[in-house]
Amino acid sequence: MEIVREPGGVTLPLRGHQPHAQQSAFIAENAILIGDVQIGERSSIWYSCVLRADLNAIRIGADTNIQDGTIIHVDSRQYSTHIGDRVTVGHMALLHACTLQDDCMVGMRATVMDGALVETGAMVAAGALVTPGKQVPSGEVWAGSPAKFMRAFDASDADMLTYIWEEYRDLGVEYTRAGSDLRRFSRTKFQTD
Predict the structure, then answer these.
(1) What pLDDT, in 10s, does the model give residues 63-101?
(2) What whole-number distance in Å separates Cα of residue 179 and Cα of residue 182?
(3) Are 83 and 100 in contact (CB under 8 A)?
(4) DSSP E strands, 8-139
């Protein structure tokens, strides 16, 4: 097995699968991608994320942002993890063998478990626990542990989701461009008074 360390994170081929990200995706230097991982155009995988597709596949669409500290894993028997286009996953979320359709959001420190489905235009609030097999319907915001319906998804929620994925798409481009400057800066010696 060969572990590859490069500006686009750490990748580990496993069981005949090499992680792959589109050229336009941003992968933070300390993100770890293992096995059967595929990441779409302009998506971003931020600092300290772990995507471990050792027993099944992880698929991430275009313009999706997986924020710092998030863990994504799979189930060995039946469930891979599928994340659609224009999805926002907040800091330190846990996604395990679930499906997030296009244009939805999972908040910070939320957990979505095996076989669960978050539909297009749905939102899982920060800290929520979506238990195995649950379905968060389009047009709803779920919160709590275990998560349950809190309120209807409204126009301000839709505006926020669009703003976040667009902002993270643009940040990914900016961070990619800044990468060479970051490496040069880290070699600079500082003077002390």
Answers:
(1) 999 999 999 999 977 899 999 999 999 999 999 999 999
(2) 5
(3) yes
(4) 9-12, 20-21, 26-27, 32-39, 44-45, 50-60, 65-66, 71-73, 81-83, 88-89, 94-96, 99-100, 105-106, 111-112, 117-118, 123-124, 129-130, 135-136
pTM: 0.88
Backbone φ, ψ for residue 153 (5° rounding): -70, 130
Extract the tokens encoding 139: 């047009």
Instruction: Tell me how far apart the alpha carbons of residues 83 and 61 are, in angstroms, rounded to a whole number.
Output: 6
Q: Each residue of 112-140: pLDDT tens digit?
A: 999 999 999 999 999 999 999 999 999 99
Contacts 24+ apart (CB under 8 A), 7-10: 7/179, 7/183, 9/33, 9/45
Give the whole-angstrom CA distance, residue 178 versus residue 64: 20
